[in-house]
Amino acid sequence: MTDEMMEEGGAPGGVVKKFLYVNRKAPYGTIYALESLEVVLISAAFEQDVSLAFLDDGVYQIVKGQDTKSVGVKNFSPTYRALEGYDVEKLYVEKESLEARGLTEEDLIVPVQVISTEEIADLMESHDVILSF
Question: 15-65+72-132: which CATH topology?
């Protein structure tokens, strides 16, 4: 990356890619959820077009009121509220994953668009890069 690009804060070569980060893992017990969040913030800092999708146990990453004291780790879920400040505003949750876990949109810490499995497939087709965590 050239000094000029760094000063402008733009993407390398001015190319903007559409990134979709697919979060499938529970928030604690593995490093996947936290690593995904860090990569999302890095991508957004380089002004890429970033979207997040939460499927399967990944929906637990954005559930309100997480108490992590018993597992001895810091609760990083409030960080999802900071995404808007990085222009990461396209968050999707698979409807079937929410329903299977007895959750509703009101249980989530951030605004999301709840979409069906079929719509998730269409979403994936519309992105240049898909990273699954």
Answer: Hypothetical Protein Ychn; Chain: A, (3.40.1260)
Domain boundaries, the chain: 15-65+72-132
CA pseudo-torsion sign 82, 113, 35, 32:
positive
3-state secondary structure at position 87: coil
Q: Summarize pLDDT for 40-75 with one digit per residue, the tens.
A: 999 888 888 999 999 999 999 999 988 888 888 888
SS3 content of the chain, % helix, strand, coil (to 5): 45, 20, 35
Nearest to 120 by CA among 32, 55, 48: 55
**CA angle, 15 as apex, 10 and 21 as ends, to 5°?**
90
Tokens 């994936």 belong to residue: 124
Pairing of strands 113-115, 49-54: unpaired
pTM: 0.86
Full DSSP string of 47-62: T-EEEEEE-GGGGGGG
